[in-house]
Specification:
Blueprint lengths: L1 H23 L1 H23 L6 H24 L42 E3 L2 E3 L6 E3 L3 E3 L4 E3 L4 E3 L6 E3 L4 H21 L1 H7 L18 H30 L4 H16 L12 H9 L25 E3 L19 H4 L7
Antiparallel strand pairs: 1-8, 2-3, 4-5, 6-7
Length: 346
């Protein structure tokens, strides 16, 4: 018993130490990410762009991809995720960075949430956080690195160059950033293959350093090309995982909780039903806030800022549901469960 408690406390101390290290190193990861993305952008436009076919078509498309990549990264790093101790955010300013809202229809409520008659939105249940004492609505979790409760918390992201939590107000930009990063890396991988073969001397005559007609050094382009291949695969998997969660109406942390709920419900011969899951198409539309109830579809291709469909204190649910099915009162997982309880003697 004493041994198990000692091991448990050692692991928890090591975990907290890792949190402090990654939290402190966050700005360095941001700087590193900016350098790598900048090098990739320079390599593409210096080496690959001049050789692309149909420059009047390919040029604007490449600029649009690069703009989305950089702007969504800027948003996900600078836009706060949304904390429970902050007041609900006001209507966005009319600037070039913000998309224009459509005019509300008759009978549509625009304060806090957006809906039509077909979308059922209910107020979130509120509990008290035992770590910071704040009143937190559903889908809110306490971040042990930020030490604050985050609305629709997905995860804290220091290592990948975000250096803050991903939550209600920046999760859309996080997914869009990943998507455009995959598109950019895949484009560089496909279109840059002839150039990297030439840089390696595999395109015919023996390699001559003086034959390289670009400003970017050959070794730099080769390294960025290899990095692009790796990032296209690695970030592509991560992006698909997040989109899978979006299509099922759950965040990363909720996906883990729902697996536990499914096992508990199955042990009682019941079926767990996620009340936030409105179907893949509706879930995607609500997450990106586009379509009939949100902004125009062009906001997926032009890097505008837009607000989420809710203020984090009300949520769209399946019709007839006010909570998940298959989870009984008292079984809901909390942030205290992340810390775990010390193992007891058998």
């Amino acid at each position: 018993m004493m041994c198990s408690r000692f091991v448990f406390r050692c692991f928890k101390a090591l975990e907290r130490f890792g949190d402090r290290i990654t939290g402190a190193a966050g700005p360095f990861f941001v700087a590193f990410a900016i350098i790598l993305i900048g090098l990739g952008t320079v390599c593409f436009f210096d080496v690959i762009m001049p050789s692309l076919m149909w420059p009047l078509i390919s040029g604007p498309i490449c600029v649009l991809i690069a703009s989305n990549l950089w702007m969504h990264y800027y948003y996900v790093v600078t836009v706060p995720p949304g904390f429970v101790d902050e007041p609900p955010r006001e209507a966005p300013p009319k600037t070039i960075l913000w998309a224009e809202k459509r005019a509300p229809r008759r009978g549509e409520i625009t304060a806090g949430v957006r809906w039509t008659e077909e979308l059922v939105i209910t107020r979130a249940a509120v509990t008290k956080c035992r770590k910071c004492g704040q009143q937190k609505p559903e889908r809110t979790h306490h971040c042990r690195i930020c030490k604050r409760c985050v609305l629709k918390y997905d995860h804290h992201c220091p290592v990948s160059g975000v250096n803050q939590c991903v939550g209600l107000h920046n999760e859309r930009h996080f997914v869009m950033f990943m998507a455009y990063l995959v598109i950019a890396c895949a484009s560089l991988t496909v279109t840059g293959l002839p150039h990297v073969l030439y840089a390696l001397g595999a395109a015919g005559a023996a390699f001559d350093v003086h034959d390289w007609p670009h400003h970017v050094p050959q070794i730099a382009f080769i390294m960025i090309y290899i990095l692009s291949v790796v990032m296209a695969l690695a970030v592509g998997v991560m992006c698909m995982y997040h989109l899978w969660g979006v299509m099922h109406g759950e965040t990363t942390v909720e996906a883990q909780d729902h697996d536990v709920y499914r096992r508990m419900a199955k042990s009682r011969n019941e079926t767990f039903v996620n009340s936030y899951d409105l179907g893949k198409r509706r879930n995607l539309a609500l997450f990106f806030n586009v379509g009939e109830n949100g902004y125009p579809l062009y906001t997926l291709f032009i890097p505008f800022r837009i607000n989420p469909y809710t203020d984090g204190r009300s949520w769209a649910r399946r019709e007839g549901y006010v909570a998940h099915r298959g989870v009984r009162q008292g079984e809901e997982l909390t942030d205290d469960d992340d810390d775990g309880a010390e193992p007891e003697a058998a």
